[in-house]
């Protein structure tokens, strides 16, 4: 009689890979979880109940065939598990590391709902593809037949790279343009190494290069090359720029020295990790060492900032969030990791003002030139904190924060990081493009099935269409757009329409 490999959730408890101690991991930027051993990965995969209607799959934006590759892993058929995993996801080892599984697949696991603890889907997904890399099963996207049509992709983030991979596999000539010196977008410069070590991203970039994808880096569209020039060079264009404009606060002294944007802070830290020379880090502006750090925000970017500050040797790290823990948009797993590492969360609190003082050269100049204009540039000294309470729900259903009068206090700070979310840049204006329609939020208008914009042959995906969202959604959009672009270039879409 055959041995039952699956449905072991009753007898086998849920286990994550071993997590390095907070004291150890706070000293470096390496990933915090160790690798699954082969036997442990198979054991945890065997806990899957093989549901007839797998909610893990339906709640995954990519609709990954999760029960299938869990079963193959439990049976020791890892190369097959990798093939199944890769068939629906361009970057499974990246999603396994950074997806908020507690809000997606694992949060909707049937055995989690029944009280047995979810299958550790993300960790097994990471293990499968890391093993595939070690075994040499991961191959460049080499097409069976080359095609003459070319596609220009603006943005080397997850959406652009996913589309590049899919288009290259079909034989199209693909060129990716990006403003940074390395491809990967926020996967390279926005997400810290303790969540996603950079060699994981760089090896994917190299795989695409080996498959024939051309990268044009350090290229700012609208400055180094015009959008019209890119359209003229290619048969189709995909806009996958992401969103980089930081939301700001309408309070006093937002331009004070020591008040920085999260994207600048995280990018500097990642560049230093690469060994790059970063003057703003060297002179201390973007280095938290020895400083009292206050991070404003409650999303995953805020979690990245507070945990980065800990690793840089901050004197103290506090996170201000205007709602309570239950209403925090960031991953609860990340909040727990941050607390273990020494971050203090100040719930129901919002900044009311930044309080600065004039020091050093600024003070000397003002005293020496009393008749001249007064310089108002200040160095941050503290944050005026306003205490909040939760009131009636807003249109989204979340309770709106309300100010508690007379409950203000000053929180000393040497470095304040604004992690308030991102908004789209005004691309039609930046690029000098007529006819590229945008929504009232500034995102590009695109058909949510075909990803076609208002301009013929121009498509758009990811955050520049959705607004700031998850890597996994950008991957889905990129893969879908690749199919639409292929249909557009080969005439299949026009034939189908007729």
UniProtKB/TrEMBL annotation:
InterPro entries: DPD_II, FAD/NAD-bd_sf, FAD/NAD-binding_dom, GltD-like, Helical_ferredxn. Residues 151-478 form the FAD/NAD(P)-binding domain. The keyword Ubl conjugation does not apply. Residues 1-25 are annotated as: Disordered. SUPFAM superfamilies: alpha-helical ferredoxin, FAD/NAD(P)-binding domain, Nucleotide-binding domain. The keyword Membrane does not apply. Residues 26-136 form the Dihydroprymidine dehydrogenase domain. Residues 15-25 have a biased composition (Basic and acidic residues). Keywords: 4Fe-4S, Iron, Iron-sulfur, Metal-binding, Oxidoreductase. NCBIfam families: gltD_gamma_fam (TIGR01318). This is NAD(P)-dependent oxidoreductase. The lineage of its organism: Bacteria, Pseudomonadati, Pseudomonadota, Alphaproteobacteria, Rhodobacterales.
